[in-house]
Amino acid sequence: MPSRSSPASGPSSPWDGEFARYFGERAHSLRSTAYLLCGDWHRAEDLAQAALLKLYLAWPRLARHDALDAYARKIVLRTFLAENRRSRWKRERLTDAPPDVPAPAAETEHDQLIQQALAALAPRQRAVLVLRYFEDLSVEETAAALGCRTGTVKSQAARGLATLRARLGPHFEALPVPGGR
C-alpha cells in the first residue's frame, strides 16, 4: 500500500514550495489591506486566509505569476464585498456571555481617526479609497480590481473623499494621503 505524505512531512504538490514562498512574502500585506477594508484585525486575518486559500486552489491554473499580487488583492476585495452583501444577522451569534475583547493594538490617534472614518463609508467606497490611496493603484487598476468602469472609480472616490472630509473636518487636510491624489 503506498504511503501518503502528511502535511508535516513536506510538500505534497509541485507548487507547494512556490506558494509557500509567496505566502511568506505577501500574507502580511494582504492582511493589512483587509484590515483597511474591514477595520478589524481578526476579520482581516479571516479575509486574508480565505483569499490565500482561494489563491492556493487556483495556483496550478495561474499562467501569469507576475500578476499574483493584483489577483490576490482582487480576491481579498471580492471576499470582503461578498461578506458585506450578506445579512449582518447571519454573521452575529448571540451568547449569554460577552466575547473576549483583545487588547487594542498600539495604534496612533491618526490611525484610529482614519479607521473610524473609513468604517463610516459604504463598502464599495471604502474599497475604492483603500485601493487608490493606500495601495496606490491607478484609476484603471482599481477599476480592473473592482470589475467596474473607471468613471465608477472616480465617482466613488469623489464621494468617499467628500464623506471623509465631512467626518474628519479640519483633521482631513492634515492626513498624509499616499500618492497625494
From TrEMBL:
The keyword Transmembrane helix does not apply. GO terms for molecular function: DNA binding; sigma factor activity. The keyword Amino-acid biosynthesis does not apply. This is RNA polymerase sigma-70 factor (Sigma-E family). Residues 112-164 form the RNA polymerase sigma factor 70 region 4 type domain. GO terms for biological process: DNA-templated transcription initiation. It comes from the Bacteria. Residues 29-89 form the RNA polymerase sigma-70 region domain. Coiled coil: none annotated. It comes from Amycolatopsis echigonensis. Belongs to the sigma-70 factor family. ECF subfamily. Keywords: DNA-binding, Sigma factor, Transcription, Transcription regulation.
